[in-house]
Amino acid sequence: xxxxxxxxxxxxxxxxxxxxxxxxxxxxxxxxxxxxxxxxxxxxxxxxxxxxxxxxxxxxxxxxxxxxxxxxxxxxxxxxxxxxxxxxxxxxxxxxxxxxxxxxxxxxxxxxxxxxxxxxxxxxxxxxxxxxxxxxxxxxxxxxxxxxxxxxxxxxxxxxxxxxxxxxxxxxxxxxxxxxxxxxxxxxxxxxxxxxxxxxxxxxxxxxxxxxxxxxxxxxxxxxxxxxxxxxxxxxxxxxxxxxxxxxxxxxxxxxxxxxxxxxxxxxxxxxxxxxxxxxxxxxxxxxxxxxxxxxxxxxxxxxxxxxxxxxxxxxxxxxxxxxxxxxxxxxxxxxxxxxxxxxxxxxxxxxxxxxxxxxxxxxxxxxxxxxxxxxxxxxxxxxxxxxxxxxxxxxxxxxxxxxxxxxxxxxxxxxxxxxxxxxxxxxxxxxxxxxxxxxxxxxxxxxxxxxxxxxxxxxxxxxxxxxxxxxxxxxxxxxxxxxxxxxxxxxxxxxxxxxxxxxxxxxxxxxxxxxxxxxxxxxxxxxxxxxxxxxxxxxxxxxxxxxxxxxxxxxxxxxxxxxxxxxxxxxxxxxxxxxxxxxxxxxxxxxxxxxxxxxxxxxxxxxxxxxxxxxxxxxxxxxxxxxxxxxxxxxxxxxxxxxxxxxxxxxxxxxxxxxxxxxxxxxxxxxxxxxxxxxxxxxxxxxxxxxxxxxxxxxxxxxxxxxxxxxxxxxxxxxxxxxxxxxxxxxxxxxxxxxxxxxxxxxxxxxxxxx
Length: 756
What we know:
The protein is mainly β and about 750 residues long. Helices cover about 0% and strands about 45% of the residues.
């Protein structure tokens, strides 16, 4: 269960806990490669990645993960601390959120006191460090120190220890010999721990001036990290420099047995009296750098930026990688899925389709629950990969468009070619390498030709044949390239017509047979809310769904698109009570996908994901980060696996999937299936009937032959609410599902048991 507990920040009066609804059917696909914090206790390692946590058992090798599925918020984690006495884990975030995980039952509670404190600037709320003393957690933040009581699970006092009680960035705290030491950007601050008035800034003295990053106690000794290369020790009540490193320090931590000083590529384990005991190099096997490190009982645990946790013993020469299954990065920009295989890429463009600053990252694929990560240096330096497309007729073949380098082709899990200006007819706009070959949307036609668009090029529409030849279409007559900032998404209709979006000039269609263009414009001429088309999808009835930066439109008759001089898209009007409303009014839409039931998944920039019926008249689901495990309301892309019904959501904070119920149409009815079956009293959802052919007539009758439900499938799935024509719930008993396709040529019967 996930709990949100809200408390008033400066007083100890908790509000009523509010249960958060976490929908079943979700699966997290987060990256655990970038480690931001570590804690090691006994035989367990607690590692925080950007927005998830994993726990590693040193002796068994087992790994347990904590994600938004379990109740984590999906925000950026900055620190963690394990409270051994009560088996609890505290997680701190850069926005001030504090979460407490009861590890015995995985119950997660959220505390938003810091988040909602308006007197603290939003960029000063980051939780930098968590220190435990008794039942109290000392929370070091960018404004001061806040206390959290682990037994009562509520905040206590807050100490503002800057000049005249002002905010001051506190990096870490330590309790040592009756004193509280705080490492700050303005020196080491110190106060008597037994004082009953620590909220008075006058109780805090500047014990030593300077820029201090850490303060750590071990076995009766106290150490600090000052500046970028200096380690100091408390001697005769003053901090004395005992060590200067050759390289910048990035972390300094103490455990029960060791101090660890971590630099970019090396870790040094010292005894409590600062004698070097062992050191660890990152080596060439992992092309990354350290981020944090600890050592205990003769073992190193080093967090890295891209390889998870590296672990080895003091006397062992080989590094062991600790890394749960996942993609390389959480900032997933594009995703495609087919028959259980998923591909993602991490390129990025601005809202205005500018690829700069260039993103140099690899690509990742998921198959059979295992991830394959292909690094950047193996994809021909193709940066800013913004769209991925699996060839559904030849799933081993996958393409990625780069918004700077061209078209990347992958066979199996091996990149084989990058089509660019050096080896194809693709051209650099005005010969400018800085602008690059800017590709974006792409789609296959029925002959396996891959159509794609290029920005800032006269020949902006391109076709790659199965043999590998690129042919180009001149767009000058419909849209001069110097009049458009970017060409965006592209889809191919069932009859081979091409539709692609623009950033300023609406939506353009091209008929390859007649070589004819047409366009849907913004305003009264074409009905679009603006000219910025960000998403396109053709549904199973060949209706064109158009997502713009300012709302949604539908064009009903794509077959006649080129026969009208002024094609006009229409709003989707829904009823909010008795008031007509426009569906997704003024919402920026990033992607639209159609599932096997002809329903639409619509990803937005700020409002999460909408799942609407085939006509858009009914909103079936609306997922946000507040009512689901979505890690962000900015959903960059969405993909539907037509074979499994699973839906993948790409966000800047991670990839996550939801088990949808709609699948694609089958070639026969051999796999006709109804689930859940039996339908038990505690189940209140719909029965899904899958394994259907396109346009299958589905009838459900009781044992006496009375018809209680009838519909015609559009894809491979229909759903039944277990009511007789939507009026009343049917009684307990056995019901027959009779599927009839191809005008009676193909039939199949299944049974459903209803238990009330």
